[in-house]
Amino acid sequence: MDQHEIDEAVDQLLEETHSMGLKCPEDRARKMVRHLELVIEKNKVMNLTRIVTLRDAVTLHIVDSLVPLLTKDFNPSEGLRFVDIGTGAGFPGIPLAILTGMDGTFIDSVGKKIAAVNEFIQVLGLDNCRAVSTRAEMLAIEEPSVYDYVCARAVAQSNVLIEYATPLLKYGGQLILEKANPTAEELDNANYAAQVCGLVRVSRETFELPRDLGHREVLIYEKDHEARIQLPRRNGLAKSDPLLAHKGHK
């Protein structure tokens, strides 16, 4: 990847974030594009992403990761702590950490992906970030109720993510979910899971990615009451026996 391609990608990122109303300093844009370079290079030896053109990756990885910053209820700032569940190649965690200055913990159950993300963190010099090969349920046992935010993008159904996030969050902390086109059933199950787990939905906002590359909805849930069940449940139960509105939960 030559310098001209990199400069074009930085210009594209600055243009697209500006068009959506996001402030993105050039030095941080360059760092986010550098992350993309590292991902595309690593993707030659392991499967990290299906998006291999830099132009599409700028929009579908970086800009997409930053969409939640457009919402009125997500107010990150330097020094706050967040978890990125199912980080994969470091999205949305690394772009969010670079632009906001928050302290990021990026988790994934696939050890090879976490090893790659830790390489990226080191090359990028992100002292405010770490990547850990673990499950959300295990992290919640090790670090309960310490995070200001939990973020997730294209990982699992909303009700499952609500269950994962709740024991990680402080009271008043928020779960930030980015979805493409959640169904009415998914939203019903999410609202039911929120009631059971101790969260309440505070907002639902919709956005369009640049170049007509996709519709996004951002759902924000806030931790505000005691859970009706013991959390976290045993590893895997959130997916194998999810909280569903039509089933109820004793």
Tags for this model:
9 helices; 250 residues; 7 strands
**What series of H and E elements makes up the topology?**
HHHEHEHEHEHEHEEH
N-end to C-end Cα span: 56 Å
Strands in their spatial order, largest beta sheet: 3-2-1-4-5-7-6
- As a percent range, the share of helical residues equals 40-55%
What is the average per-residue confidence, as pLDDT, rounded to a whole number?
A: 96
Explain how this protein is built.
This protein has 250 residues and is α/β, with parallel strands linked by helices. Helices cover 41% and strands 21% of the residues. It is built from nine helices and seven strands, in the order αααβαβαβαβαβαββα. Helix 1 packs across helix 2 (26-42) and helix 2 (26-42) runs antiparallel to helix 4. It is globular.
Which secondary structure elements does this structure contain, and how are they paired or packed?
Blueprint: H1 3-19, H2 26-42, H3 54-66, E1 81-85, H4 93-100, E2 103-108, H5 111-124, E3 129-133, H6 136-142, E4 147-153, H7 158-165, E5 169-179, H8 184-197, E6 199-208, E7 215-223, H9 237-240
Parallel strand pairs: 1-2, 1-4, 2-3, 4-5
Antiparallel strand pairs: 5-7, 6-7
Helix pairs in contact: 1-2, 1-3, 2-3, 2-4, 7-8
